Amino acid sequence: MVGIRKSFRSISTLFLFVCTLFFVGCGDKGDSGTKGSDQGGDPFADEGPSTDELKKQEEEAERHAKAKEEAKIRFDKAIAQEPKFDLDAATKKLALEKLKVSLDEISRDKTKEEVERLIKAKAVEETNLTYSAAKRQVIVKEAEKEFPLFKENDEVKVITRRGPVTGILERVYNDKIKLGKFYILKNDIITPDPACFNKEQCEKRRNHYIRINFDIERNDHIKSIEKKITVKTYKENGFLSKGKKLIKIDDIIKSKFGPEIKKLEEEYNQQVKEKVRAEVEASLKKDGLLD
Prior knowledge:
This protein is an alpha+beta fold. About 65% of the residues lie in helices and about 10% in strands.
């Protein structure tokens, strides 16, 4: 009996020893696992870039910044050398297409009043080729011959209702003249015109003759020429007729073509930028500053 008890105690002691070792081993393994986790970590976790990779990234960023700076310098320089949008050429093109006016062939520096005076001057100049001062002088002589001015002591021949009378003009009254010994009522004189015995009246008769036989025809001719050249001359000097109104071509261009010209300018500038950008990109690649 005593032997059995001793054996049982030995077995119990052995069992307790084994359990103790087991639990101690588990604890060590747990600590070892924790330490392993702290030291080695998850084999699938991102351990971050290496020193070489960081250096390579820094070099790439520096290269990119340098390329960007160089691109801006080259772009600004190239843009400055590109021709600017030709506003004058665009305006001329639109005026020719829309208004049928060549701005190179017209003057645009005159006012409406100045053009009006120019039209009159042109009409007079052309009219003078037909109705010259010399021709008018011929008419003046005819008027003087048709209406001679008689003065006292001139020898005068008049034809009256009673017949011809010749004599020295001794006196001129308001309603009659004294020719030699005869008093003759002006109303009885058939020829010359009774106005010939009064300076003021004679001058009026002469002027009327000149006006009827020259001046009126000349003035009509001037008006005819003015009418003929008005639209053309205004157009040559930067004005277009719209109904009964005359509008300066510059005002039409500003109001009608302004937005269109602005759009053309924007399109042109965009094309220039795209062209320069492509050229700069090619030069950067050539110089190894851009992949």
